[in-house]
Predict the 3D structure of the following.
Amino acid sequence: MAQKVQGTEDLYGGYMRAWQHMLDVARDLYGSYGFDQIETPAIEQVDTFVHGIGESTDVVRKEMFRVFSGALLPDVMERGSEAHLKPRQRMAMRPEGTAGVVRAAVENNFVPQGGAPVKVWYGEAMFRGERPQKGRLRQFHQVGVEVLGASDPALDAEVIIMLMQFFERLGFSRDALMLRINSMGDAACRPAYRKSVRQFILDHADEMCEDCLERAEVNPLRAFDCKNDHCREVMTAAPLAKDNLCDDCAAHYAQVKAYLDEAGVAYVEDPTLVRGLDYYTRTVFEVDVAGSGVGAIGGGGRYDGLMELEGGRPTPGIGYAVGFERIYLALKALGISLETSAEPCVYVACTPDQRAKVFSVAQQLRAAGVRTEEDYQGRSLKSQFKQADKVGARICVVLGADEVAAGVATVRDMASHEQVKVPLDELAAYVAPRLAK
Ligand code: HAM
């Protein structure tokens, strides 16, 4: 039997409706904040991710799905490397949305210099070659937002508030959510901070795992969230970003917290929150659901240097993304369903001699916007009624020879079993409001 790739899922039925519901909530909420939807390509040049996310991150080093056309693949395999390929021939499936959005902003020049910030949201599949487990997939879905062109700390607070509102609209109560925040500093203060963390790791080399020793050279801050408990314990004594911020970053962070306090948003300061992508500067945040066992359901932060890394003018940015599959699981653990029921429908049943009439009545109902089901298998009237029940029809329209001759249909309410005769040309007007109820 053909099988899907491990760590991927089929979205259909209620699960698909849950994803669509999440997109509807996003469109509605983000629309009210003035965001436009964007969709960037699922494949980008590798450099877009390497420059943006960072060469030393796990996402770039270990998790990106590389893409080669059938024409290039044999050559790459034979040479054992893609080094000879032109940059535009080196492609990868997007592991996240931010780098692609910023690349699009640079390439299409859609952030006006000195103008109002550009606000976009997306809902798309992302691809990461991680070891699949609960809440960790190789193809998963994110809803995210990006705001390009403003560095005001009020915006950081507003973006975080919008994230929490999004979670609430999906069904979480505020108490179920734990919001953690931190400041990562910027180009002025981070290099020195990284150096001091590197030195700390080297000073404790005999207590740290191999991975952390490697991290000391390539990405020392990642040692704060090493999977090894002992490393994390050692790191509790390491220098913290918040104690090493330059004056501007410290002031920015203090203002973000003041705005959150003013808005009554509960948060926990987590000085070890470093995030897995290199482009972050200043504010970073993550949201977990205690006891859900799925990891963070969303996270994001400010990335004031990313536009330049993608070849654009210096332009500040901030955003976040949430994971659909993790949210679905976390809500389920709380006994809340993200699934919406299927749209109510009408079933048009008939005696076998009236098949042609069903065809035209169904067309007429659909043209009026009524979701309509019918039988294509020549079932008996009785089994058509059963089928109507099974598909959850709210109303069954029955066409027999007598009805059709009289220009009417029998309309049966599936819940109350009440039946009335309705002229065929008034059918749509009769059923539409009854379905909407
Ligand atoms: P991220 O923290 O890597 O951030 O991913 C955001 C969310 O996507 C996570 O909190 C999680 O819910 C979900 N997620 C990540 N990896 C997986 C996976 N393998 N399986 C299932 N769900 C997953 C970003 O991607 C940034 N681009 C967010 C951002 C936008 N920062 C600024 N703007």
About this structure: The mean pLDDT is 95.
